[in-house]
What we know:
By secondary structure, the protein is mainly β. Helices cover 0% and strands 52% of the residues. It has strands at 2-6, 9-11, 17-24, 32-38, 45-50, 57-59, 67-72, 77-82, 91-98, 102-103, 107-111. Strands 2, 4, 5, 6, 9, 10 and 11 form a seven-stranded mixed β-sheet that branches. It is globular.
Amino acid sequence: VQLVESGGGLVQAGGSLRLSCAASGITCSDAAVAWYRRAPGKQRELVAIISIGIISTNYGDFVKDRFTIAIDDTNNTMYLQMTNLKAEDPAVYYCYAYPPVYWGQGAQVTEYS
């Protein structure tokens, strides 16, 4: 099983970015999939999650309708569309799939001013 992330980069406050996580060896729509992030000096936190069978989605409180998690079954890829980025959003973003637990390698989102 592999989860390969892409789409990280430099962002400005108010900007947008889309992260991708291409899965192999696991079907995203048959698993619970999520995005987590870890900022320097902070603990890892849940950004967004889709339950097994795409029954429900949930977001961290800090998201406040700015991010959208989605799965594209045609290419077995999960996405995190981020808009209205804020100063607290830069972090390493990790995709995650369960069961069992798989992690991507991380995508760096960095702020530039």
